[in-house]
Design goal:
single chain; mainly alpha; Serine Threonine Protein Phosphatase 5, Tetratricopeptide repeat
Length: 289
């Protein structure tokens, strides 16, 4: 096998030669002295490139960020944060399987970092594969039993498997670790609603709304209030504000993606059919198209 120069070094070599012949005006030709970068210089450059890529991710330039991160990894393949940021960019580009591969590389470099396993679990949840998600979550929780995000993901996986009791236990544990983790509190409400425990569900949605003012608990609470009083001014106000805040909740597909059960979705249908909601519903549907 013929041994060739590393492609990165080839690029540096060509640039060095070009620069030399461009600026050297001597009539005496000689071969220039080229200083190839050492490992520390390559690492420093890769980190700089990685930071630029992160900025691109923030601006929504995911494809360009991915290209930069792949270049940075070529310079410094043992930098775990580069692999994690690459996975983030790939997820945002909806390249989920490529993101999983990137996180697997990160795990090789840092096998005891629970957040990487939870990152894999999030991808599996998006891919509608709760069993693989649960496996990754359990690995992460074995490394850190006090991670509220891990228990939240576990609750989602169990909810997708219709294991309501196990999901409730996981969400409660998450909210116990972090009392302001409104997502877990909200998801307790989702389950309680499906189990016809409307009183407790209402309490959970109210608490989640106090913490977050997010569209989901706002709309869920509106559905409960509307179910007991079709003329509830508060229910209509909350529902209109929720759709204004996030018009995607008009979509049943989006509700399903957010793990809403059939009963809550049916409640949303009844609420959206109210004549007082007509304008808000039309506007939300228009924004969704």
């Amino acid at each position: 096998m013929k041994k060739t120069l590393n492609p990165i070094y080839q690029i540096i070599l060509y640039l060095s030669l070009f620069e030399f012949f461009l600026v050297n005006k001597s009539s005496h030709a000689f071969f220039p002295i080229i200083n190839l970068p050492n490992q520390q210089e390559l690492k420093s450059k890769s980190i700089q490139i990685g930071k630029s890529a992160v900025q691109l991710i923030r601006f929504g330039e995911y494809e360009e960020a991915t290209k930069l991160l792949k270049l940075a990894i070529k310079l410094n393949p043992k930098e775990v944060d580069l692999w994690i940021n690459l996975a983030d960019s790939q997820i945002r580009s909806e390249k989920h399987y490529e993101a999983l591969s990137s996180l697997n590389e990160a795990i090789k470099l840092k096998p005891n970092d629970e957040s990487i396993y939870f990152g894999k679990a999030s991808i599996y949840v998006d891919l509608n594969d709760p069993l693989k998600a649960r496996f990754a979550i359990e690995k992460g929780l074995s490394l850190n039993k006090n991670n509220e995000w891990g228990y939240f993901l576990l609750g989602n996986a169990e909810l997708m498997l219709n294991n309501y009791n196990e999901a409730l236990i996981a969400f409660k544990e998450s909210a116990k670790i972090n009392t302001n983790f409104w997502q877990s509190i909200n998801n307790e409400g989702l389950i309680l609603y499906e189990l016809n425990n409307l009183k407790e569900a209402k309490t959970k949605f109210q608490l989640a709304l106090e913490i977050s003012n997010n569209a989901e608990p706002m709309l869920a609470l509106a559905i409960i209030l509307f179910s007991s009083d079709k003329n509830s001014i508060e229910a209509l106000r909350l529902a209109k504000n929720a759709l204004k805040s996030n018009h995607e909740y008009i979509s049943e597909d989006y509700q399903t993606k957010q793990l809403w059960g059939q009963k809550l979705q049916q409640g949303a249908k009844r609420l959206f059919k109210a004549k007082e909601m007509k304008k808000a519903v039309i506007e939300a549907k228009g924004k969704s198209q």
